[in-house]
Amino acid sequence: MNRNLALTTLGVLSVATVFAAPASATTFDLRYAYEIQSWNVPGTGSTAMLGFTAPLHTYTVTDHSGSVLSFGAAMARTESGRMRARDEAIRRRDTSYSYAIHSAQPKEGLLLGMTVGTGQPANFSGSAVSGGTPVNTSANLLKFFMGSDLFSLFDGTLAWDTAAWGMSATDPSGVGTNQFSFKSSMWALGLTYRIPVLTLPILIEPYAHLDLGRAIGSGFTSYDSRDYGATLAYVLHPQWRVEARLHNATMASELRGGATTSGLANLTTTAFGTTMTF
Hints:
Elements: H1 3-18, E1 28-41, E2 50-63, H2 67-92, E3 110-119, E4 122-126, E5 138-153, E6 156-171, E7 180-197, E8 202-211, H3 212-216, E9 226-237, E10 240-254, E11 264-277
Antiparallel strand pairs: 1-2, 1-11, 2-3, 2-4, 3-5, 5-6, 6-7, 7-8, 7-10, 8-9, 9-10, 10-11
């Protein structure tokens, strides 16, 4: 098999791998939520306290089939083999080389997801508006997460997840003291406990996370980041539910005037949304 043919075959196998999840199982879900985020950043010696509210529209897609992770693993193995074959051909001064193409059967159990959010903050206070209120401020949220169930516990299920996410709000049109820039981020490891109340039917999901570096131990960069909250879902249909969520977090922040990741931002979120499962 020559190199060009191998790459063509790889593309066909990649598409087949992504859509190879069992039809009878949950493949993915889509979630929409309207969030009201209230941020409070304590002041420092050079920066005054900052507080603002950011209404956000967030959209989440979660893969439950294992297709995305299986596809990534197959691509990595194939690319690794290609590079080894190429380097060996260069060493031997060969004019061609061949390598194996790997594919992987999706395995359910490990979920992978992404959340994006956008909105316009309001109700500013603090140093960011000492010369006037920014009028063109936009906010963005990006989150990646993965996790799986661990085991049944009493009447519920205990699950783990890890998530890396960040929030930013900027006003690019501001001048001088009207300029506004805020960033906060968190990389966490946590637990979720799902409790079904079948007679209603309601699903309750309390959760908590700690900074991943702190959870792993010494030798890793760690901040006093953490969050906790709970989601209450009413199941309208096995594949459709409406949800409400309360969330509190303390996250590493970058304040106006310079990076101060040792400074912490406090966040309180109230969210309402819906999830469709396919």
